[in-house]
Structure formats: C-alpha cells, structure tokens
Design goal:
The chain has about 525 residues and is α+β, with helices and mostly antiparallel strands. The chain folds into three domains: about 55-170, FAS1 domain (Roll); about 180-195 and about 240-350, no CATH class; about 355-520, Jelly Rolls, CATH 2.60.120.260. Helix content is about 25%, strand content about 35%. It has twelve helices and 31 strands. The strands form nine sheets. A seven-stranded mixed sheet has the order 2-1-7-6-5-4-3. It has a five-stranded antiparallel sheet with strand order 19-22-29-24-25. A hairpin with a 6-residue loop joins β6 and β7. α7 (about 180-185) packs across α8. The longest helix has about 45 residues, at about 1-45.
Length: about 525
C-alpha cells in the first residue's frame, strides 16, 4: 500500500514539473510573439493613432507629410480623401521630396499613382502583387527579405486602419512605371517603330450594321473598325496593363543594337558601311522576329528561372538561353512585366551570311490524302501538272516533290519561286534532287540564265563549282550547283527552273529535294 502511494506521489511530482515546464515554455513563446509584434508595430505603425479619425485629418496634421498634403490640395485631390470612399496611400515624406530632381514635374498623374481606391494590407502579401492606382497604372507590391516595397521603393512605415483607409510611408518618390510600349518608345525607338508599323484597322463585322448592298452584291456596313496589332496578338499586349498578365523581355539596349548593326555592315562590306545601310525590311522581317522568339516569356521571371533547362517562350516553344550573357543588374520593372538586357548583343552571322534553304515540301500544300497543289506563291507555267509529295529518309527534309511530264515530253513547263530578303553579292545556288524523273532544265535567277542541266546526271559523282565532289546516295539523291553573280541590290530573289527538252532518260519530269542559296564572297 505504501509502495503504491509512493509511486503515485512520484508521478504527481513529475506531472507538476511537466506542467510548470510547459507553462514556462508557453509564456516564453507568447513573449517572443509579443516582441515580434512590437518590433513590427514600432517600425510600421504610428504611436497612439486616433483610429476614429479620417485618413485625411490624420495625414494633414502630420508635419512630415506637409509637402505631400500641400501638393494634393494644389492638384485638387484632397477632396477624394475627405469623403467616405476608402483608399490606400503611399506617402513620400518631406525628405523624399527633397531628393526629387528639378526635372521631374510632380503633377496630378504622379500623385494619383500614390493613391489606390481600395484598402490593402501589405501583411497579406504572399508573392508579387499588382495594385491598380488612381492613375490607371498597376504598381508592384513585393516582400523581399522581410521588407516590403512599392514599385521597388521600400515601405518604411505603415499605419493602422483609419475610418476611410490607411497609408504607407516611403522616403523616396515612387514614380509610375512605364508599360512595355512606353518604355520602348523612349529607350528602344527602333523596336517601338517595328511594333507600331504592324498596327492596322480592321472592320469589326460583329459591331458594324449592314445597311445594304453594293453593285456587285457585297454587303455594305455602317462600319465600326478595331485596331489590330499582329505583334501583340502573337507575343504580348505591350500597351496594356492588367493585374494578372505579365511578361519578361530579354532585349538589347539601343546602343547595343546600333553597334551590332555596324558590325554586321562591316562583315558584309561593299555598299554596307554602317547601321544606316542595313535595310529596315531585313531588320523587321528577319532579325527582330528571331530576337523576340527567343526573348519573350510569360510571367515575371528571375535570372534563376530563366536558366531552367525546360524554359519555354511565351508561345510555348522550348528555348535555351545563355543566362551568363544577361546582365542581372539591368533588371527594369515595368507596369506589366520585367525587362533584362544583355551584357553585349551581337547578330548571329548565319542570319545574313549562312545558307538559306527552301525544301521542296515547302512549295506545295496538301489538299487531301496523297493529293497536293503548288502554293499560291509558286508560279507554274506551261503544262498543267499537279505535284506529288513523296517521303524518303534519304531526302534533305525527309521528303521531296515530283511533277511527272511523261515520256519524251516536248511541251513547255516551268516552276518559279522566291527567296526573300537576300543581301547583294556573289552567291552559290545548290539544287538537290533525285535523278528520276529527268529532263534538261535551264535555271534562271531574276530572269537571267545561270546554267543548264540534265537531272539524269545526278546519278553520278559531280564536280562542284567550288572544287568539291558531290556523290549520290543509295536512293539516287545528289546535288548540282551554279554561281550567281547578278544580285546587286537587296531584296527578293526569283529562282526559275524551265524545262528545255528530254534528256538522256525519256522519263521526264521536274523533281526537287531542296534549293539553297549560299553567300559566297570572292
């Protein structure tokens, strides 16, 4: 009996000890929490605020906000804060205004950017958030290393909730960030011109009212037009701002772009001496699409996120970036995303000195099972012969095109297509084909003949104009080439193959695996 009482007594003593230990621990945690809350409140909240005041009454009486409130009065914005609508203010203190350069006009727009027509608690931030301001802009709110920022300006003080809102104090003036289009207009005028050049007006039939018919029976509308920008439809609406839709651009600076064009001009030589000589049509149809396809991404991405091996561009295509070439300190916040710049920018020489190839398959369209027609851009004259698309692992792109003309064809037949955006100078044209069916063809560049050839000869090893040897593969595919000396101006190049007569083989026709143009300086 005594033994049991003794054990119970020990147990009771142990429980009393654990209870005291838990009580002390709980009190310790409460004190820590109170201390953290106290630190926050001391840093972010005013002492003894009169919470039954209006927001305007409080800030008007705050001496360190005198410049801000005076400017609100001058711009007739104070009346907004005297009503019952609720606002969140981001108030630059007097010291912040002392740092503003004289060149900045602190007008109604800038002040409106510091006012949001709703209440927001920064403690609720779980990630970057855009907050719309009275100016119509979206300001970025962020939490970084336990500090809070409004458009990259640190918030140094936060108020409690007043009758119609709250404020956050900053000691720098947060200027409204431009959207991408506004940034391009000032910093990258060439890119801005490219974007605006594509804009056109289109009839919106859904909003237009039919009012009759013209003499040809076409409907006539009381027209309503909408503005369409193909760039914004393909990539990102750079002129728009929303709370949820952001992008990341990897771009050059205007100075880098000009320098890269200068270097390109020196590489081409001849009449090309500086960036001013590089045709604008080439920049807009070749260079800029390549840069943009590899440099626009959805969402606001960090440098680490851009280095992901699974990175895809804004159109869902896989992209591999050399992140080491991107300057992380160049990060520029826009109201609808982020811009980074390269440390240096150069133009890939393959865009203007490399091979330009047209696969045979690119000249035809499939309009049914095993039924093809030439594309509208391909000019075919003479005998009406529909092309046939054929597959082959031995062909350049896995396929080739044949148009059969029959045995010992004696009629006329020609096929003409275009290479676009070719710089002037000496080139080499290379024609890849199968030796069956055959025929003797004259090859023209911009209506000037550059050579004549019987396709049947492709079955044998051939001597290139460069001195190399072209050998046929086991499926009968080979190539032949010719010098092109008549390209004296930048522009499109027309290539025509014209049937002349039956060759060594009586099974005649036109066939093409590919045609390439190679810039070939002397």
């Amino acid at each position: 009996m005594s033994r049991e009482i003794n054990l119970y007594g020990q147990k009771k003593k142990f429980l009393n000890f654990r209870w005291k230990e838990l009580l002390v621990s709980s009190l310790f945690l409460i004190l820590i929490a109170a201390s953290c809350s106290k630190d926050w409140d001391e840093h972010y909240a005013p002492a003894d605020p009169a919470l039954n005041q209006s927001l305007w009454d409080y800030i008007e009486a705050e001496e360190d906000f005198s410049i801000f409130t005076q400017l609100l009065v001058q711009n007739e914005l104070d009346s907004l804060l005297k009503g019952n609508q609720q606002f969140t203010l981001f108030i630059p203190n007097n010291d912040a205004f002392s740092k503003v350069p004289d060149s900045i006009d602190i007008g109604e727009f800038i002040l409106s950017h510091l006012i949001s027509p709703n209440i927001f608690n920064i403690r609720n931030l779980t990630g970057p958030k855009h907050l719309q301001t009275l100016a119509g802009k979206f300001a970025l709110l962020e939490k970084v290393d336990e500090k809070y920022y409004f458009d990259e300006v640190e918030i140094i003080h936060a108020s409690p909730l007043f009758l119609n809102g709250r404020y956050y104090e900053v000691d720098q003036l947060p200027l409204a960030k431009p959207n991408f289009e506004e940034y391009f207009r000032v910093q990258l005028p060439g890119l801005y011109s490219y974007l605006k050049y594509q804009t056109y007006d289109s009839l919106d039939k859904s909003m237009s009212t039919p009012i009759g018919f013209d003499d040809n029976g076409n409907t006539v509308y009381d027209s309503v037009f909408i503005t369409i920008n193909p760039f914004e439809n393909k990539y990102f609406p750079v002129s728009e701002e929303t709370r949820e839709d952001y992008a990341t651009f990897i771009l050059f600076t205007q100075e880098q772009y000009t320098s890269a064009l200068d270097e390109m001009a020196s590489q081409i030589g001849g009449v090309y001496q500086s960036h001013e000589d590089i045709p604008l049509v080439w920049q807009e149809s070749v260079l800029l699409p390549v840069v943009l396809d590899n440099g626009i991404f959805a969402d606001m991405l960090s440098i680490d996120e851009l280095s992901s091996p699974t990175l895809i561009n804004i159109n869902g295509e896989h992209v591999v970036l050399d992140v080491a070439a991107i300057d992380p300190d160049s990060r520029y916040l826009c109201s609808n995303g982020i811009i980074y710049h390269f440390y240096d920018f150069s133009i890939d020489e393959s865009l203007y000195t490399g091979e330009i190839r047209r696969e045979g398959e690119s000249l035809i369209d499939s309009v049914g099972t095993d039924f093809y027609v030439w594309k509208e851009s391909v000019i075919v004259q003479g005998e009406i012969v529909e092309p046939s698309g054929s597959k082959s692992d031995f062909a350049s792109g896995g396929g080739y095109v044949v148009a059969g003309l029959g045995n010992s064809f004696a009629g006329s037949y020609s096929v003409e297509f275009t290479f676009q955006n070719i710089f002037p100078g000496r080139h080499r044209l290379e024609w890849g084909a199968n030796y069956r069916p055959s025929g003797i063809y004259t090859i023209y560049i911009n209506d000037d003949p550059i050579g004549e050839y019987d396709i049947f000869n492709l079955r044998s090893a051939l001597l290139s104009v460069t001195g190399d040897i072209f050998s046929p593969n086991s499926a009968g595919f080979n190539r032949v080439d010719f010098w092109v000396e008549n390209l004296t101006e930048y522009g499109d190049v027309r290539v025509k193959f014209e049937y002349k007569e039956s060759g060594f083989s009586t099974n005649n026709g036109f066939n093409i695996d590919y045609v390439s143009l190679f810039p070939s300086p002397l």
